[in-house]
Amino acid sequence: MKLGIIGSGKIVHDFLSIANQIPHLDLTALSTTKRSHQIGLELQKQYHISNLYDDNNNLFNDSNVDTVYVAVPNSLHFSIAKAALEAGKNVICEKPFVATIDEARELKKIADKNQLIIVEAITNIYLENFKFIEDNLTKIAPIHIVNLNYTQYSSRYDAFLEGDIQPAFDPKKDGGALMDLGIYNLHIIVKLFGKPNSVKYFPTIQKNIDTSGILHLSYSDKQANSIAAKDSFSPNVSTIEGEKGALIIYGHPNEMPKVGIQLRGKDLEVINHNKYSHRMIAEFIEFTKIIDQHNFMAVDKAFTHSLNTLAVLQEAKSQR
User: Fold this and answer.
1) CA atoms of 195 and 316, how far apart (whole Å)
2) Residue pLDDT, tens place only, 188-224
3) Kind and range of the H or E element at 215?
4) Positions of CATH 3.30.360.10 in the chain
5) Check: CATH 3.30.565.10 for 2-121?
6) pTM for this model (two decimals)
């Protein structure tokens, strides 16, 4: 995979720090805004990136790029992903995928027409600890209660309270707790249990944005709560509770650093099956394989899951 990156924010810095650990990935180009060009120069030098642009069209026209990683504010995902596909590039788009189901379907239609691949980058469902949770659901079933918690006091929250509204808290840029942190919980719930029968979001609104909130998903046989908070502190423990036992996620749900299982009447077992030191390595190894092998079956499966998750997210957003 010959990768070109669009963006220069925190997630790009995170990714670049581990890009050299992903087999068969050639880091070819980086595109930033003109305002962030100096940051781009520093990243280019530090990570030995072949080409640096301050105009996305130049990256789209780079014949050495076959895949574009879209890592920009949420509100720009659709337009940049669409432009990349129309330029003949595969697309890895950061979470949350796009704003609406219609946008997602339009992107997939363009990709299919041109035999291109588009996938959503969402770390947790590619982690080995998530697979442990998935594989052990039947041991605790029937499952009736799901409580997921992703609380992280934002490094930008104090500035937000002072009136400095950065993209993560900007309603015009599709920010907020639901879109930033809640999306990880939502991917876990929908991946494990499918689409719910009903969705209800209870947000805490400050300056016209949800700084925290509780999303309730109702199923015929279970109830699920997703807590996402950028204005609070918590040790972050999540549980999936069934008649025969419980599965536990310790730590932030985007990383899932440890998981546990406790069957009724048995001792708690805590393990870590994650293979890699950074949460993004597993997903990008999988994306590289999918793209290099042109595995459209895997793409279709991943897209169906992203679409189901987006349907729930779209309904929750309408209730903010």
Assistant:
1) 13
2) 999 999 999 999 999 999 999 999 999 999 999 999 9
3) strand 209-218
4) 125-274
5) no
6) 0.96
